[in-house]
Amino acid sequence: MTTTIHVATAQPYDITVGHGAVSGLGEAVGGAAKVAILHPKVLSEEATALAAQLDAEVTQIQLPKGEKAKTARVLDSCWKILAEDGFTRTDAVVGFGGGATTDLAGFVAATWLRGVRYVSVPTTLLAMVDAAVGGKTGINLKSGKNLVGAFWEPAAVLADLDFLESLPVDDLRGGLAEMIKHGFIADPRTLELFEADPQAMLTPGSQALAEAITRSMEVKGGIVGGDLRERTSTGGQVGRELLNYGHTLAHAIERRESYTMRHGYAVSIGAVFAALLSRNLGHADDAFVARHREVFGSVGLPLTYEAGVWDELRETMNLDKKTRAGALRFVLLDAVGVPFIAEAPDEGVLRDTYAELTA
């Protein structure tokens, strides 16, 4: 059984989520004479099976593992293959793998001939609830993550829950962090599902996990449908930037860890920091902070980070995409589903808040 979620961006598309969703790939790329399937080595056999079900000439492009795929060198190699194989504007690119794969594949599609059809087939929980939805594509630089990219909506997203059966538990946890974040920013029911049965969230195939995944994708799809390019945050209204809750510190941590820490783990730490900062700026209360620690912690996600490294992290934050005219901005919450943006918060408060995080 599958559920269809409509994303109403300027170029609207549907997300299909559920067991067996990948069977819709042929329809999603229908009409393309050539299809490129970009995938990591570990999914080579599965990519070949996908190619066999398509009525098109298929080029399989094997990518490096994880964030190593998101480089200018890899991007250039993909362009060269598409050129050699004669890909035209009526052809299609498929991203088949985790979030790094879908980020890179989407950027390939966005830039080849100034944009060709792109279909996202995420195979990890994090990719399903985060990277594959929303139209953000890109690569990393030495100076930061996702600093070069483009907004390019997929023609379709096929989130097949069968792929989760073989995921290591740590990879599941990484995706759960984004789902919990979606709960705090917009969906109390998601938090209730985690609080009712944390173990079910760590069990592929559980009905509770399937519901939470669907709800999480609905949250992200709804937010990006109203603000694809992060342009509508004004005053008390927070647009797509809402999805960056917890990410300001998270991205700085990821860079410090040379991108070896799972994104979701960094988001968990960053969200606890955001809750503490919300409270310390006179908005949220102690119970709100405690709920963050309880929900993230219930599925084994980290809640603290290394002491004595605030200055290094703070310098990295200057590259955060929410920074405007040199002023650091944080997406924070008064309560569940009640966001606000704190612009240029007091540096002493920031330092003291980080000290609480490491205690």
Describe the structure.
The chain has 359 residues and is of the alpha/beta class. Helix content is 44%, strand content 19%. It contains 14 helices and eleven strands. The chain has helices at residues 25-28, 44-52, 72-84, 99-111, 125-131, 169-186, 188-196, 198-201, 207-226, 247-256, 263-280, 286-298, 310-317, 347-358; strands spanning 2-7, 13-18, 34-40, 57-63, 92-97, 117-122, 136-141, 144-151, 156-160, 329-335, 338-343. Strands 1-2-9-6-5-3-4 form a seven-stranded mixed beta sheet, sandwiched between helices. Strands 7-8 form a two-stranded antiparallel ribbon. Strand 10 and strand 11 form a beta hairpin. The longest helix is centred in the middle third of the chain and has 20 residues, at 207-226. It starts with a strand and ends with a helix.
